[in-house]
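Retro notes (design track)

What went well: tokenization of the new backbones is finally stable.
What didn't: we kept losing track of which sequence belonged to which structure.
Fix going forward: every design gets posted as structure first, then sequence, in one message. First example under the new rule, 211 residues:
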């Protein structure tokens, strides 16, 4: 009896030992035409082992690459794809580049910065003022979510100026008098439902009516 500890280690466990033994047998076939034919049959068998994967050129090439890996890159067949480099197993993946987390005002988040960037690009003063009002409402709402103390409209507008490099501004007296940065009752209700995942204010979902 032969134990697994006495066998060659599996190079790609997902295909099992039988596939690896078949790949090893292919290296002993001297007739190149037969060896190519057997290799194509083996690739089809390897694809059937993973039936849930959709057919695609990328996946077919991956299976051929796996065949060469299983054979320790010693199999000499005519593959429809370039033979992979033997160093592919030792090559380290490229380091992922993460988005910069340098946010000036973390309690407002990246979204406010992007809104301000878009508002700066607006053409007319009316459009920019409307954008400042919308951004001011959001900033005041976000601030009050994470802080118990009240924030003044002047401080919100001051922050908008800083974040926009003084490219966005409006009359603070107009903001105060018309309470432009205060959300209406309807807006507050909608904002609360959105943050609570669509639940009603009492924390319970709507019940279905019984027949």
């Amino acid at each position: 009896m032969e134990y697994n500890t006495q066998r060659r280690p599996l190079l790609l466990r997902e295909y099992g030992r039988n596939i690896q033994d078949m790949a090893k047998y292919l290296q002993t076939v001297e007739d190149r035409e037969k060896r190519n034919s057997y290799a194509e049959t083996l690739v089809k068998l390897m694809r059937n082992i993973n039936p849930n994967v959709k057919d695609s050129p990328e996946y077919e090439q991956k299976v051929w690459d796996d065949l060469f890996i299983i054979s320790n890159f010693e199999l000499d067949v005519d593959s429809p794809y370039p033979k992979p480099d033997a160093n592919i197993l030792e090559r380290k993946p490229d380091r992922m580049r993460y988005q910069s987390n340098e946010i000036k005002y973390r309690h407002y988040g990246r979204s406010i910065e992007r809104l301000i960037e878009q508002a700066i690009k607006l053409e007319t003063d009316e459009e920019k003022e409307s954008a400042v009002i919308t951004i001011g409402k959001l900033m005041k709402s976000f601030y009050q979510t994470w802080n118990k103390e009240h924030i003044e409209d002047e401080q919100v507008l001051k922050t908008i100026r800083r974040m926009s490099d003084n490219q966005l501004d409006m009359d603070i007296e107009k903001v105060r008098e018309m309470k432009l940065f205060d959300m209406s009752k309807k807006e507050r209700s909608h904002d609360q439902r959105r943050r609570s995942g669509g639940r009603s204010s009492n924390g319970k979902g709507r019940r279905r009516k019984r027949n």
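Added context from the reviewer: The radius of gyration is 32 Å.
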